[in-house]
Amino acid sequence: MSSDRLPAGVPFVEPPVLLPALGREPVPAVARALVELTGGLSAHVTAEGRFLFIADTSLRFLEYSREYVDHASLFELTGIDDVPVVQEALAAAQTQGPQHCTVRLLRGLTDRLWMQLHIALYSPRTRTLPATFVVRGVDITAQKDSEQRLRELALCDTVTGLGNRGYIQERIAGAIAHANDGGPNFAVALLDLDGFKKVNDSLGHDVGDQLLRAAGQRLVAQIRETDVAGRMGGDEFVLVLPGCDDEQALNGIMKRVLSAIQQPFQVGDQMLHLTTSIGVAFYPRHGTSDGTLIKHADAAMYCAKDRGRNGLYVYTDDLGDLQRKAFSLESAMFEAIHNGEFSLHYQPICDPVTLAVKGVEALMRWYPALGPVSPAEFIPLAEANGLINLLGGWALRAACMQLARWDTTRLGGLYMSVNVSAQQFHHPAFPSLVWQAIADSGVEGHRLVLEITESVLMRDPEQANLVLRELQTLGVRFAVDDFGAGYSSLGYLKRFPLSALKIDRSFVKDMPTSSNDRTIVTAVLGLARELGLSAVAEGVETEEQRQMLIDRGCDSIQGWLVSQALPANELEGAFASGSLHLEGGR
Ligand code: C2E
Ligand code: CA
Ligand code: CA
């Protein structure tokens, strides 16, 4: 827009309505007629934004009366955030020629319209008169709206309707800027659905998409309005959680998220079960850019997966080291299997009153040259790299062989409890492996108890039931390990042919101090009785715990109070010396 003055020599007429006297100038009739044709905003204003002239069409367009405009300024018609933009454009127009700016004007004081304003100096400031400006505004709301829609489409994940990766990156960048302005710090949580690939591969992409949509909806339902949920792609989701800046705040919400995903999904006529592994990075502790935060949350998520899935892991600065260590452990493991560095220790399971030993649990041990590695470290690793099938198969055979050997000594008649991880259990060859171990050792099937976790049963209940029933025909019994730590729904227990519940160590540990844990243990024991299952309390370390378990009718206890897990020869020694005994005092 040029700053041309109105053409000289055209007869002037007074504007129809009185405007403030200052700088008011009559507008020629032809010019006015032209102006009235153009629509949008046409005005003549002072540097303070007061209207010296405004076209009738502008008033109709902006839905103001002339009386109102007489007393208002252009700034009062401008959206509050954009007032400085208009002020700057007026100042710049005085010295730098015509200016353009895009601002929101208020229609009828409420609606916001996107307007492109062109502002030009009309009369320069003189010693006696202040500067004035002509302002022309074009409505670009429709264009802005479609831009916005396009942006939303570009940032929208079409499968779930949540934001996509680009959207998440934008929102994290926004949260960073806000935090730097004094807003809250925040957490970025990356979630990966465990077992999704299997559903997608076996039931097809339609089912997969429906499952993703449903999972996305459950996530959104767990978070606050100020939180953000999005999908990174595949089966990965992200949450951005402002105000969640420590582990305590995090745990509350993540518990809800984990349990929301754990509930079965009904897709068509199928019930599907998923869990999720979550990695978390905090701003600014673990990164100060969206890229770093996502990368670190991702590394933490892989750690959560390695640790057995369905859990949460918070990024630590030494995670990079840990991953390197995990890698070298992994290669060491292959060697170790060849070198026979793995062994089994056996922990007695006893009658709580008489302390007579009824059975033992086989627990794997690894003593490489550099010092022992805990099963809590190498078992998840073996599960992640698939070696668990090899290791677990060996443990099963070795345990059965040991049982057969003990049968020829004074330790005859014990039962053997062997841990089975999810991967082993779901391996198609698993039933035949068990059958082989029993056949080769010559022990009877009922002497063998296989310990599986709740999540093994819940991952694919139909399939799990088939495996359980098949092995049941050999007499093999099943115990639910770490009971209480996973699923809270107990109804499913009835559906499976189980023989025992092992009460998770965490509940036993706090029984003396926590009435809550006492209630849980009492309830689990009641449940076991009702379902005709026996109950084994794990991790019994004190007389007080033992007494509380006796009072509540627990069948068996296992823990350091009686004995740690021992190598076979040391266990034999403990029986020989009388510090352990079998039923009937043997
Ligand atoms: P789990 O099956 O829950 O085994 C019980 C764990 O509690 C063992 O840890 C045992 O040493 C420990 N424990 C026993 N009594 C006490 C006590 O009084 N106090 C405390 N604080 N701890 C006690 P461990 O041997 O480190 O094994 C850890 C986990 O590794 C096992 O947990 C099991 O999930 C897994 N695991 C061990 N051996 C095998 C195996 O052969 N196959 C598979 N799949 N997993 C195994
Ligand atoms: Ca166990
Ligand atoms: Ca256990």
From TrEMBL:
Q: Which residues form the EAL domain?
A: 326-579
Q: Which residues cross the membrane?
A: none
Give any Pfam family that matches: EAL
An MF annotation (GO) of this entry: catalytic activity
Residue span(s) of domain GGDEF: 184-317
Which CDD domains does the record cross-reference, listed alphabetically?
EAL, GGDEF, PAS
NCBIfam families in alphabetical order: GGDEF
| Listed name of the protein | Putative signaling protein
Give the species. Pandoraea terrae
